[in-house]
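SUBJECT: protein chain
CONTENTS: sequence, structure tokens:
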Amino acid sequence: MHETQEPPPRTAHNLPAQDISTEVLLEKYAKDDERSIDAVNARVARALAQAEAPADRARWEVAFADALRGAALAHDLLAVGSGRTPAEHADTPASTPR
């Protein structure tokens, strides 16, 4: 008997990015020469780690990058303000008063 193996369930971790997702990433969140979610995540993780003791920053940067990759943090809210000036994110939904 021949057994077929079912494909893994489709999740945010194994789906390719849609064109619109990349466009929004570059328009709203990417800074300077960032062209991927990994580059944005690296900047956000580095900025978050700055709140930690200098000796612990490298370890926390790795931990925050891992958390962002796993979508464990409120990604859009962190990315909007991390490492950007108020003028750079003034038109984003997270910065608009409710």
Notes: Residues 51 and 57 are 8 Å apart (CA to CA). Helices lie at 19-29, 37-49, 57-69, 75-81, 86-89.
